[in-house]
Amino acid sequence: MGRRHEAAEVKRMLSASRLVTLTGVGGVGKTRLALRVADEARRAFPDGVWLAELADLDNPTLLAQGVTEALEIRDHSSRPAMDILVDHLRDRQALIVLDNCEHLLEECARLADRLLRAAPRLRLLATSRQALGTAGEQSLAVPTLGLPDPGGPRPSLATLAQWDAVRLFVERAAAIVPGFELSEDNRDGVELICRRLDGIPLGIELAVVRLRALSVQQLLDRLDDRFRLLTTGSRTVLPRHQTLRALIDWSYELCTERERLLWARVSVFAGSLDLEAAEAVCSDEGIDREEILDLVTELVDKSVLLREEHPTAVRYRMLDTLRQYGRERLAASGEEAVRLRRHRDYYRGLAADARAALFGPAQVQWFTRLHLEHANLRTALEGCLAESGQTVCGLDMAADLLYHWITSYYLGEGRRWLDQALALCTEPDGSRARALWTNSWLAVIQSDTDAAAAMLEESRSLGTRLDLEPVLAYAALYSGMVAMYRGETRSAIALYEEAVARHRATGDPVGLALALIRLSLAHSFIGDSPRAIALGEESLEVCDAYGEGWHRAYTMMALGVDVWRQGDTARAAALEKESLTFNRSLDDPLGVGVNLEVLAWIAATEQDHSRAARLLGALGTLWHAIGAPLSGYGHLVHYHEECEAAVRRALGKPAFNAARKEGARLSYAEALEYALEDELPSGEAAGGRPSPLTPRESEIARLVARGLSNKEIASSLVIAQRTAEGHIEHILSKLGFTSRAQVAVWVAEQHRTTEADGERPPKDTV
């Protein structure tokens, strides 16, 4: 069933520690993994490998007796069972698997401590919802079974079949329905079933039983009512394993009253949450705010909440199966409406706080936080717009998130939210006026200038009628963008100048910086370099005064355009690369796209036509993903066209097409590396397939796949352990993975692909 990496990690841990505990949510496969490791390690324990099943042992005082029976010890004396057990194991080299310890946690911890002290060659492998908490214990959180990244490229049928969750499904289905195979007809259904069941082995196995009566598609259609459906399990296993609900009921009953209450309340969150959100939404009436941290810790220990490491903070996530269960409990308690309202109000406030902190040194942290909170923001917006008295709050919230929409891949979604909110909120007030000019910028970026112009006309009319100077300032700014896009440069300059004046008057540094950038680009476009440079430098001063980075990066991009037009390609490239470095850190695809454009133009000017063609190829992929070439900067399209024509003439059609295809094969990360470093990433020159990782990250990924720990990786590469951990965090983020096991699968696939393409893999590839 897979688990190769996890099994190797457990064996490594057992070699270093005499007590290893596998933790994880019920049904995730802790027992299965423990038994596999025990079987594979049998030769290392000449005195035997033993399984002590504790799940049906309700009386803690019978624990030692139960383990004695599991070891088949025949002792009819009246001595205490613990003494018998200690004497039996004292000189033996054995491995005991203590399965399902969570309901006897303290007793198991004491037993483990006593046995390990008395028997120096004994090893214990425990499975539990949470670690035993004894000295010298090592624990491994068993992840759910791996699945392909839903946002990544569609894997081949053969590759899909190698993912652990899919492999388990197919193996169990073949046992239920003879001749069942993964095919092009059922592959999507199988993958979605596994995904909806969170890759939990127990859930998958219970679902597959229904294939006796249902097709894959019918099973998928019925999974929304998963708890009612999955009722048939093997009669040979414990009752709680017969249904998913019974399993979760059992976990729920092991929690304290306050832990159950928090479990139910946390179910209103979508995706993940942080401690601050839990405190704001889940406290009061039964849980004090000061108790939340301890309760969260307990739910993490019990594997109800999963802990996620992020560069800025720790976050928590609940498997969808457990979240739905908690939601049912919340609804039954009568609290659901209250918690949903608290959730909505919290994220409405978060969006407003982010908008207020937009122009300052905490900018990137806010953008990152909003990205992590996207699922919760979406849920809050849905809640606002679904309740008649809250639609204006939803309109304001969607407008507050303007920079979240444009600095991420959510631009189209932002436009849809604003369109929906504007359709619901027709009152001619300030909220509508602001949302109109906000939505107009998204429309401009999407090249929908007619819709943008209509929204700006209404926004300007409302601003005039209500005497809203900020509205008039932004309406002028975005109207200038529409005019520039349409080739009406002089009108655009007049509108930008109006925007600059109005933003100065209102003291809005955000609008002022943005207007100065656009005015600089417009003057550059008509050949007025001195004015363009002066405006750009003024924008830099505004940004620097507030410690702001994003608008500063766009200012440098604009300055780079004019410096390139003046012929100083070296300085222009330096400006664009500095801008690109920031936009890459922010993961702003729009800014990155414009930076790559200018760098392509610079390369063509410097007669480096192959590099220009590769960058154009990479840009083709990027702009296709974004949905509009040079989004929001349509007046620069003619520079792109001139560059492409010149490079095509210089290289000739065959060489141009080859270089452009080479650039198109670069992943997003590799394209940025190439743009910044002037060299193709390792392996690309030979036509290798694109990888999202840098060469260093690829090296570390291969070491992860070999089963090395963070400490071992750091030692191998002579780097700090914290540096190694940072690289691994980036690897997981880029690949969209949550576990090292998924990295190992990905490395193996890259290895197979490399060999299929006739390339020689790196010597340390798994």
Automatic annotation (TrEMBL):
PROSITE patterns membership: HTH_LUXR_2
Residues annotated as domain HTH luxR-type: 686-751
SMART domains cross-referenced by the UniProt entry: HTH_LUXR
SUPFAM superfamilies (alphabetical): C-terminal effector domain of the bipartite response regulators (SSF46894), P-loop containing nucleoside triphosphate hydrolases (SSF52540), TPR-like (SSF48452)
Origin superkingdom: Bacteria
InterPro entries in the cross-refs: AAA_22, HTH_77, P-loop_NTPase, Sig_transdc_resp-reg_C-effctor, TPR-like_helical_dom_sf, Tscrpt_reg_LuxR_C, WH-like_DNA-bd_sf
Name recorded for this polypeptide: LuxR C-terminal-related transcriptional regulator
Organism: Streptomyces asiaticus subsp. ignotus
Lineage: Bacteria, Bacillati, Actinomycetota, Actinomycetes, Kitasatosporales
